[in-house]
Write a structure and sequence with these properties.
The protein is an alpha+beta fold and 526 residues long. The protein folds into two domains: 4-246 and 281-309, no CATH class; 370-520, Reverse transcriptase/Diguanylate cyclase domain (Alpha-Beta Plaits), CATH 3.30.70. The chain is built from 15 helices and nine strands. The strands form three sheets. A five-stranded mixed β-sheet has the order 4-5-3-8-9, with helices on both faces. A two-stranded antiparallel ribbon has the order 1-2. A hairpin with a 2-residue loop joins strand 1 (59-63) and strand 2. Helix 5 (119-133) runs antiparallel to helix 6 (143-160).
């Protein structure tokens, strides 16, 4: 986690894969990186040989009453900087090749030299893993990052000091010598990394990372899972326990190698125990302080994570409520639109019904028109044929209707047509059809009636029509009558046209007989 509340990416460990060398935005950047690495390798090899032939194996140092040996290894500084700036894959080969050179020139066998050279890369691996999985800036620009940097450098130094045992074994050192080599190795690596790398990281990291981000852009590092932090913490604890065990083991063996019972020998043993105890004391003080700091950092990080999680949950809840409200508004609007659409569809259906009704009705009388008659008559014929029921068709013509229009006017004639049409109400059954056939002609379709029932219907209609009285400018209009022709379809072989022709022929017979009556169609004998 960064020290401030904003997520900072400068100084955060972001390894650059070796394959990224081929994907630089500009060609010179690739060669600059390669040239810098080769120059760093040459510097590591030169410094390793200078240390070997110059005798920089260790320096005696004192801190108060504590005396110890410091082992300085200059290639370690260069390797550590490459690990932090570009990744473990770039810095570890520098440490390995330089250490391998020292091992071979020191006379180690090839097998032991290859194994011995893994010591410093092991410490660098611990350093890289900690910074990769614990998202803390490696630049010691604040008190918290500085303390964490010191703690990590100590763990890395202890891890790399495993190479001291190989060196002590191959050079057949005594227990005292092995203790001094091991103590000098981890303490020298620890102090060298803190003192030499810390200022360089402060001075150069920001500028170098801007150059790297310009040529090899990378996204901001994502927070690692908590389990990685726990694994790093467990590994660090194991390193500390190993350090304590080795400190007391090597100190004890060193004391056991001191012979003699003189006061000087016992004083030397006491001094050795004291140095070992003081070393452990200072190391444990640093570790205790680091543990307190890491505990605070973990608590602070966990608190921030919980706060961010609570804010995210609150945001998602508000977003869900807002979307739910928007969905409710949209649902209500859709429901209203559905209601309006249903109302419009009902209006359209009503209009369509009215249009169909108007298309099938005579506008003056309100009866069905001739078009509707021709649509329904074939259906009635088929139905009568299926049910084997008789079907009568009656054509009615109002007598002397032209004289009514000429003498009394068309308004009176229209009134006669309306009143005559109104007479059908109450006389016809639901399955009967009454239509205005044209002018003063009307057609009745009467299914399921026999001849006597048709004749009774016409008598009632004739009587009611004769009782109509209308006033006009020429006096009262009365004495109205009509003529009708009847045809019958009862054998299943009659068509619509034939039925109408037969009714029309019977109508002419009724008119020829003096009007005011009706005739049934009688086929002429052959």
């Amino acid at each position: 986690m960064p020290d401030d509340k904003t997520q900072r990416t400068d100084g955060v460990y972001q390894p650059l894969p070796l394959s990224a060398w081929h994907t630089a935005a500009t060609g010179p950047a690739r060669w600059h990186l390669l040239m810098g690495w080769l120059l760093s390798l040459a510097a590591c090899l030169w410094l390793a040989m200078v240390q070997l032939y110059g005798g920089w194996y260790g320096f005696n140092a004192r801190l108060g009453e504590l005396s110890f040996v410091l082992s300085i290894y200059p290639p370690l500084t260069i390797s550590t900087l490459w690990v932090l700036w570009f990744g473990y894959a770039w810095g570890a080969p520098l440490a390995y090749l330089s250490t391998l050179t020292v091992a071979i020139l020191s006379g180690l066998s090839p097998g032991w030299a290859l194994l011995f050279s893994c010591a410093n890369p092991l410490g660098l691996l611990v350093l890289a893993l900690v910074y990769q999985h614990v998202n803390v800036r490696y630049v010691p620009s604040s008190l918290s990052s500085l303390l964490f940097f010191i703690s990590v450098c100590f763990i890395s130094g202890v891890s790399s000091a495993t190479g001291s045992f190989i060196w002590s074994y191959t050079n057949q050192l005594s227990a005292m010598g092995a203790f001094q080599v091991w103590q000098g190795w981890w303490s020298g690596n620890f102090l060298q990394t803190v003192v030499s790398c810390g200022p360089l990281l402060l001075l150069c990291t920001s500028r170098l990372q801007r150059w790297r981000q310009r040529h090899w852009p990378q996204p901001a590092p994502q927070p690692q899972a908590t389990r990685w932090g726990l694994l790093v913490a467990l590994a660090s604890l194991a390193g500390v326990l190993a350090f304590l065990w080795l400190s007391f083991l090597l100190a004890d063996r060193s004391v056991m190698t001191l012979g003699g019972d003189s006061s000087g020998a016992w004083q030397q043993r006491a001094m050795l125990y004291r140095d070992s105890a003081l070393s452990v004391y200072w190391v444990m003080s640093v570790l205790l302080f680091a543990l307190v700091f890491l505990g605070y950092r973990f608590f602070h990080q966990r608190t921030l994570q919980l706060k961010l999680a609570a804010d995210r949950v609150a945001y998602e809840r508000d977003l869900a409520l807002r979307r739910q409200g928007e969905a409710e508004v949209a649902r209500n609007a859709l429901h209203q639109l559905n209601l309006e659409l249903a109302a419009r569809m009902a209006e359209v259906e009503q209009l369509q019904t009215q249009l169909r009704e108007q298309a099938s009705r005579d506008p003056l009388t309100g009866l069905y028109n001739r078009r509707y008659l021709h649509q329904r008559l074939p259906q009635q014929l088929q139905r009568a044929e299926r049910q084997q029921q008789p079907l009568h068709l009656v054509l009615i013509d109002l007598d002397h209707f032209k004289a009514v229009n000429d003498q009394h006017g068309h308004a009176v004639g229209d009134a006669v047509l309306k009143q005559f049409s109104a007479l059908f109400i109450g006389l016809l059954q639901p399955e009967d059809i009454a239509a205005r056939y044209g002018g003063e002609e009307f057609c009745l379709v009467l299914p399921q009636r026999n001849a006597e029932q048709v004749a009774a219907l016409l008598r009632k209609l004739q009587a009611a029509y004769a009782g109509i009285r209308l006033q006009s400018h020429d006096g009262e209009l009365s004495g109205l009558s009509f003529s009708a022709g009847i045809s019958l379809a009862n054998d299943g072989g009659c068509s619509e046209d034939l039925l109408l022709q037969q009714a029309d022929a019977a109508l002419y017979q009724a008119k020829a007989a003096g009007r005011n009556g009706w005739r049934c169609f009688q086929p002429q004998p052959a």
